What we know:
Blueprint: H1 12-23, H2 45-62, H3 72-84, E1 86-91, E2 94-99, H4 108-124
Antiparallel strand pairs: 1-2
Helix pairs in contact: 2-4
Amino acid sequence: MKNRILPRGTQPDQIASAVSVLVRDLDFSKSWKITVEEFKPKRTTSQNAYLFGVAYPAFLEGGGEALRGWSVNELHEFMLMQHFGEESLELGGRSYSRPVKRSSKLSRQEFSDYLEFLSAYAGNLGITIPEPSYDTDRTDP
Length: 141
């Protein structure tokens, strides 16, 4: 089954018509699961490239000796936990922490808010992160 995104303001009868078109050609000798959910545009590839290619490397470089040996992925996990909180898990008598929320699930606005948090956090440590040079309202292909 194909996904279909209906814009905000689509009338219920138009939604019903769109769903009817999508299910019309299904093989009814099979079972189907049909789900309707709110559409939230995810972060753009430009936002993601900025985070991992510019912001985190600048953070690590600006952190000097205190961040020597940290990887981008370690910093990413740490910052997600700082922003969204963390949960502790235990397995085999060992415990570890992980972020409550992942950046891959964020909307464009939530991702922009996270980037602002990262910049402010870095600023409090005396680290400057370059401003993004992409358009956050643009839709990536």
